[in-house]
Design brief:
Blueprint: E1 21-26, H1 30-45, E2 49-50, E3 59-64, H2 71-87, E4 93-98, H3 99-104, H4 107-111, E5 117-119, H5 127-137, E6 140-142, E7 163-167, E8 169-170, H6 181-185, E9 189-190, H7 193-205, E10 210-214, H8 235-243, E11 250-254, H9 263-271, E12 278-280, H10 288-294, H11 300-313, E13 318-325, H12 332-345, E14 349-354, H13 373-396, E15 402-410, E16 417-421, E17 427-431, E18 440-448, E19 453-457
Parallel strand pairs: 1-2, 1-3, 3-4, 4-5, 5-6, 7-10, 10-11, 12-13, 13-14, 17-19
Antiparallel strand pairs: 8-9, 15-16, 15-18, 16-17, 18-19
Bound molecules: iron/sulfur cluster.
Length: about 450
């Protein structure tokens, strides 16, 4: 659905909302976090300043998600609570974007008529124009189904001064049955390598030290570009190009798809000095029956083959994964298969999700096979228990080792500690004395919990 009025896609030439404050609330994945940074950048270009809290905000943007557990309930619950916020001041503006907005379109305003702007995932850079539009003409929904543009050089305001997301690809060509992404974000489209390298260079000029390449399926990056007439992925070459960018300290990427991992990419991860020795390989389930139902495109055996190749190729690789517990039809035997793979794989961390049906996905129609909540909860707890023990063992391997730490921020709990990440992606806390944000330090690890490490400066 496209709005009837043809709208100018560039931000206003002159800041128009000086003195007003914005607040962005983000649900969901890294792609949404990065989109929120771009929204913040567009708002600041328009003259607004970031509010410290909702109460101080004149303009509120909710970036929604459809992937996480009970995402719909959370969204409409949040919008319900915001009715009061909106009614306290008639000048306040409430804007909703992201995957749920793309999926629900007018339904958002039907369920929450106090929302001023609903915008889809494909036209985010039009947000300021839509805000203007709503002020002049009243509430507006602009959700387009076709891909309008790739990530542009629209300004973005990053949460971290030294670590930044860099989108290399949008959309996805796969059709995992639990996932709404292909229908709300469209098919895979890769950005040109030169644009990516230019953006990385500009980021470094503004103080960034580490970039995380972002896409739904990064290791198939470039297939659509047909570089040199070939439809082979260009991801390994992209890593090599970025590794040569002066001033850049570290490169990460997420999320790759296990079926698309190529041996040459793993070799590049090991050999390129700036590419972190960390691989996120989303398993989702260890059962071949469930993997088939999920349409993941690999078996348990193939997954383990790729994982073992990563372990053999990359020195002291840190591995993480995603697991969905309680996918429709998952029996105790299927779940045991997942636990078997978890024990064998020895991941540093596992991101665990309880299955919950998402409207618009194939899995949503598998209601005959839905698993009882109590069963999902108890399987989830069992997985968590097992993985916590594995993570603790994995994290303890760092005690006494020397690592490179990029200091990113003050620790959430206390100002006497700062935190950042080492090469493998593990969070590290370090006393804040003599340490500044952006320092790339040699540290020694002295303590480990299953979730974080503590270090001292060498
Ligand atoms: S690979 Fe599967 S889970 Fe990932 S974005 Fe594509 S469809 Fe969704």
């Amino acid at each position: 659905m496209k709005a009837a009025i043809e709208l100018n896609k560039t931000p206003r030439a002159k800041p128009s909302r000086s003195g007003l404050n914005y607040f962005v609330k983000t649900f969901g994945c890294q792609m949404n976090e990065h989109d929120s940074e771009r929204i913040a950048g567009l708002f600041e270009y328009d003259g607004m300043l970031k509010a410290n809290s909702l109460e101080q905000a004149d303009v509120l943007f909710i970036n929604t998600c459809t992937i996480r557990e009970n995402a719909d309930d959370k969204l409409y619950g949040t919008l319900g609570q915001l009715k009061k916020w909106k009614s306290e001041n008639s000048n306040r503006k409430l804007l909703v974007g992201g995957c749920a907005a793309q999926k629900d379109k007018e339904l958002v305003r039907e369920r929450a008529p106090w929302v001023d702007v609903v915008i889809g995932t494909h036209n985010l850079t039009n947000i300021v124009n839509l805000l203007n539009q709503s002020e002049d003409w009243g509430p507006i929904t602009e959700v387009i189904d076709e891909i309008e543009s790739l990530p542009t050089d629209a300004p973005s305001i990053r949460e971290s001064e030294v670590s930044a997301w860099l989108t290399i690809q949008i959309g996805c060509n796969n059709s995992c049955t639990f996932c709404i992404v292909p229908s709300v974000r469209g098919p895979e489209i890769s950005r040109r390598p030169s644009d990516i390298v230019n953006e990385a260079t500009a980021m470094i000029d503004s103080g960034v030290k580490e970039i995380t390449l972002l896409g739904q399926n990064v290791n198939s990056y470039g297939r659509d570009l047909k570089i040199n007439g070939s439809s082979k992925p260009y991801f390994t070459e992209l890593l090599t190009e970025l590794n040569n960018v002066e001033g850049l300290k570290r490169i990460r990427f997420t999320s790759p798809h296990p079926k698309d991992f190529k041996p040459e990419t793993l070799i590049a991860v090991n050999d390129l000095d700036k590419v972190a020795n960390q691989i996120h390989m989303p398993l989702q389930s260890g059962s071949n029956k469930i993997l088939r139902k999920m349409q993941r495109g690999y078996t348990q055996e193939k997954f383990l083959e790729k994982l073992n190749l990563a372990k053999d190729t990359i020195e002291d690789v840190s591995l993480t994964t995603d697991i969905i517990v309680g996918f429709p039809g998952e029996t105790d035997v299927d779940f045991e298969e997942t636990l078997k793979v978890i024990k064998e794989s020895q991941f540093d961390a596992v991101y665990m999700f309880k299955f919950s049906p998402r409207p618009g996905t194939t899995a949503n129609t598998m209601d005959d096979d839905f698993i009882e909540k109590e069963v999902i909860d108890s399987r989830f707890m069992k997985l968590k228990e097992i993985q916590t023990e594995i993570s603790h063992v994995r994290y303890k391997r760092f005690i006494g080792t020397d690592q490179k730490l990029l200091v990113e921020k003050y620790s959430k709990k206390t100002n006497t500690f700062m935190s950042g990440k080492i090469d493998g992606g593990q969070t590290v806390h370090i006393p804040s004395q003599d340490v500044s944000i952006g320092d790339f330090l040699d540290v020694r690890i002295i303590e480990a919990t299953p979730f974080a490490l503590t270090a001292e400066i060498i």
